[in-house]
Every structure is written in C-alpha cells, then in structure tokens.
Design goal:
By secondary structure, the protein is an alpha+beta fold. It has eleven helices and 14 strands. It starts with about 20 loop residues before the first strand and ends with a helix.
Length: about 300
Amino acid sequence: MKSRRKVPPSLMVADPMNLWNDYFVARSIHDALEAMVESQGTARIIAGGTDLLLDLQQGRSDPVHLLVDVTEIPEMGKIEIRQGELFIGAAVTHKKITQSELIREHGYALAIASGLIGGPQVRNSATLGGNVAHALPAADGTIALMALDASAEIVSTSGTRRLPLADLFLGPGKSILQEENQILTGFYMDLRQPGQASAFQRVMRPQGVAIAILNIAIWLQRKQNVIEDIRIVMGPAGPVPRRLSAMESVLIEQEICQDTLASARSAMLGETNFRTSRHRSTKNYRQEMGSVLFEDTLHRAFELSQVG
C-alpha cells in the first residue's frame, strides 16, 4: 500500500490516538479500496469529516485503526454529464453543489438542500457522499437526491455497481456502506427535460439544531395544468428515507385544486410515521407542518416547471 501521512492539523481532535491510529490519503479509488482491504475491517472512509469526527469524539462510533481520505481522488470530486446523465462525485462539497450551474439546472432541489446544510464553514468541507452515508432519515442531501431518482455508484472488491438510493439504507444511521470494503463513489441522475422541475424546503429549530424538524423534496413533470408524474420524499417520515407513493398516486394525472390537495394530505398522514422528538418537535407539529411544507413545495415545483 502507498505510504501514509500524519493527521493534518485541520482534522485533529482531542486525544486523536484514542480514536484512530493512522491516516491515509488515497490518490485513486484503487488506492482507497486497497487500503480498506488491507485494514481488514478496521478502516473508515473520510472526506469532510463533519459527521464522522463528531461520532468518534462523542462515542457514537467505534474507534477505527485507519482513516482513508478520499478528497484527493479526482473521480470523486467531479460534476459532469456522462452519457446523458448528470454525475456528482461523492466527495463534492455542498458549497460546490450550490455553486454548480449543472446541478441548479438539472437538480435544483439538491442545490437548495445543500445550501441549507450547516453554516458556510460546514458547507466548505462537508460532502454529499458523507451526508448520504450517515444514513439519517432526514438528511437534506439524501431527501433531495431520492426525489430526483438518483442512483448510487459503489465500488468494492466485487467491482462497480449502481443501486437505487433507497437500497442503501437499513435503518437510522445504518446502511450497506458500513459493510466491509464498500466505497460510495458518486451519484447519477437524469437530465431535466421540458416540463420538469424540483423543489426543496425544510423547517428548522431557531437555534440551528443540525437535523431538520421536517424536510421535503418534490420532483414533478407537468403537461399544461396537469401533473403527469411526481416523486415526493419527506423526512423524517420513518426509519429510512423513502418516497411517499400513496401521495404520489393521488396527484398523478390531476390538476392542483383544493380537493386534490386534501386527498394528498390525507394520504400523507396515512403513510408517514412521524414521531415526537424530545429535542426537536412533536408528532402533531410535524403532521401540521408537513401539510404546509407539502403545498408550498408542490406549488414551487409546479411554478418552476414552466421555466426552460
């Protein structure tokens, strides 16, 4: 394996040697995978580190022997169109996403979601891959990506494969990426077509608790005043991020009117599993705000679908 280097000052935490023993900067996906294999299950991938380092510090993650830094891998830092799809590398920062014209054109909901994550310092270092890999049911980037029907690219010793985003998640904070020698390398999504648009909104506590009380992303395709197709993802609506298929079924082939909206709100209450959180909000508040966010986001996406 390539030589490793000491932990850079920007990644130092209290008593770091109690949390990891070595730090390796990979220059290619092959380098990173080789390091993971040689560590025999004692390594973790790190990019921005805004979630992982806190988990290590606060005891929410077992100490690791080796941190494998993937920020120097060119492939994982790209935003580009590949064979008619938009590719976003897993190590792309949220700041870069908010500034990307390609993402604002083809994945507007993701651009808005990334711009709301943390503060400027967090967005400068936190990555889209880290947001997804943390596997929280209300992760802003995950909610937006799922509404955009993104697929995830994963590299392992078995080769490269692509999976629907929903297939990554096993439960709160748990994903298939935690299995040995799995590296999330990027995401693919369709390019925007005429009549299509997406939007994202969320509700936060005033003091800025890191996780949203509630968030929602909607993608839709319209024909004149009719919703031809739609994808709705709301978090946290259950233990894992998922589409609200009952709501979608109510809205497809319908115009936006009070009766349709009422039916969609009823479907939302039937298929979401909102819970009361001691630190964030009550179940009743989420149900109430879910209806408000849904209508606002639907109207925003419908409005944007007329542009371009």
